[in-house]
Amino acid sequence: MLVISRLLHCSKCSTFKKGWLSLTLSKSSHLNNPAFMSRSDRNYLNTIVQRLFPGHRAQYDYNSFGYQHATIWVCSISLFNGVIGVGRGSSRSSAAESAAHRAIDHLRPRYIQRWPRAFRR
């Protein structure tokens, strides 16, 4: 049994599930679905960028600051020399995931009406 101790947010139903999460069935089965939980916003963003702008890639830039035992990472994602998402986190990957989530939120309202297929999962 896999157990994770953190607060999980479900973008599908906009609910939070607190405390210890175990892979048991509940009313919202998508909260316990390992495939849904392991979804990477970085992969999804790269897929969106490939569909909207073939031949172009999003560029990830990382900076870290703070003390060695409490480092804070900042990731900025740029596309066509413009920043589309900035995120911060306690690790490099969590900062990149946060920045990718914000970049998706930046791109979705601008392009979903013209190219809805670019945002399918």
Automatic annotation (TrEMBL):
Keywords: RNA-binding. Coiled coil: none annotated. The keyword RNA-binding applies. GO terms for molecular function: RNA binding. Residues 40-109 form the DRBM domain. This is DRBM domain-containing protein. The lineage of its organism: Eukaryota, Fungi, Dikarya, Basidiomycota, Agaricomycotina.
